[in-house]
Amino acid sequence: MTAHHIKLEKTEDGIAILTIDRAEKRNAMTYAMLFAFIEKVREVSADDSVRVLIVTGAGGTFCAGTDLADLSTIPGETRGVRGEAHEGDVWWPLVSCPKPVIGAIDGFAVGMGAEFSSQCDVRIVSDRARFAWNFAHRGLVPDTGAGSWILPRLIGHSRALRLLYSGGFLEAVEAKEIGYANAVVAPEALMETALAEARRYLASSPFSIRHMKALVYEGLARDLPDHMKAHVTALSACFKSADHKEGVASFLEKRPAKFTGR
Question: What angle, 0 to 180 degrees and rounded to 10, lies between the N-to-C axes of helices 242-252 and 206-219?
């Protein structure tokens, strides 16, 4: 079992830090690690004390992908996929998480590591970060579906297909230039920058954020009329929420808001 390589810490101000900690293997994921990762994200999703999630890797690497030694223990002809197609939090745990998710990405983010980086809402990367969707080198398609659905919507179809076809690296500087990375910093400043970004979101309503995240991701698959129906439902819910009442009161009373997420 290697589930202990997935570590979760929580700060006093409501930030959770989820670390893939198997530096001796460049944080390559075994099956046990993957399911532990998914369970930890579920834990964060259900914890009202957590406002923002940061996902990172230990030892100068984000995640070098699936541990192929572990994968090879099950022949491909008999190997099942990790879940049913409708099980969103199994395939896209970070998208399914209702909290803002920041990727603090240092070094290699390859294969599954690149997929998880695409699932983050915001990517803060070190100047030595390198992304590769190298599934074609292994006779596969992107293993969570993020590389074939989210990535083209982030950087455009042509850029995404070039990365998928070649399996080549997207370097940190280019990632920033094309909008994949939100910021590029020195490795030693990575976590400090990610925490500063996370704290920017603490002034916002968790109720609003939860609905905004759902509207944005679900909106990618909707036509405009369906999106506007969902928008009207969400806006109506916001009007009735305690967070909206508190947001207005705090403005009128000229004080910081004390949101409850309800």
Answer: 120
Q: What number is the average pLDDT over the span 167-174? A: 98
32-49: average pLDDT: 96
Question: Which of 37, 31, 35, 73 has its CA nearest to residue 55?
Answer: 37
Residue-averaged pLDDT of the chain: 94
DSSP 8-state class, residue 125 = E
d(CA 124, CA 145): 22
Residue 74 is given by DSSP the state: S
- The residues that bridge with 171 in the sheet, in sequence order, are 130
Predicted pLDDT of residue 70: 66
Q: Which residues fall within 8 angstroms of residue 208, CB to CB, at 6 or more apart?
A: 238, 243
Q: How far apart are CA 42 and CA 48, in angstroms?
A: 12
Tokens, residue 238: 């916001």
What integer pLDDT is reported at residue 82 of this predicted model?
A: 62
The percent of residues in the chain predicted with pLDDT above 70, rounded, is: 92
* Whole-angstrom distance, CA of residue 233 vs CA of residue 200: 27
Measured CA to CA, the distance from residue 262 to residue 236 in angstroms comes to 13
Backbone angles phi, psi at 109, to 5 degrees: -130, 95
SS3 154: helix
Report residue 69's pLDDT band, with 50, 70 and 90 as the boundaries: confident
Instruction: Give the model's pLDDT for residue 12.
Output: 95
Rounded CA separation 64/52 (Å): 24
Best CA proximity match to 47, nearest among 99, 104, 1: 99
Q: How far is Cα 84 from Cα 155, in angstroms, rounded to an integer?
A: 28
DSSP characters over 202-249: TTS-HHHHHHHHHHHHHHTTS-HHHHHHHHHHHHHHHHTSHHHHHHHH
